[in-house]
Design goal:
mainly alpha, 2 helices, 55 residues, 78% helix
């Protein structure tokens, strides 16, 4: 019960943080997205090859 009261007290009396995202996070996100897009064809070939081997 105490944890619930504390949780709601923290939410009700919270102040804005005025935080920002580090600029390098955007570059890391874009690199990850590009890497994921480049891996899709590679794994698609492996899965198609595996299915063809079964049949």
């Amino acid at each position: 019960m105490e944890k619930i009261v504390l949780f709601f007290a923290l939410i009700l009396f919270a102040k804005p943080a005025y935080a920002y995202i580090d600029p390098s996070i955007g570059a890391m996100f874009i690199q990850g997205l590009i890497a994921a897009l480049l891996l899709i064809p590679f794994y698609a070939k492996r899965i198609i090859g595996y299915i063809k081997k079964i049949f």
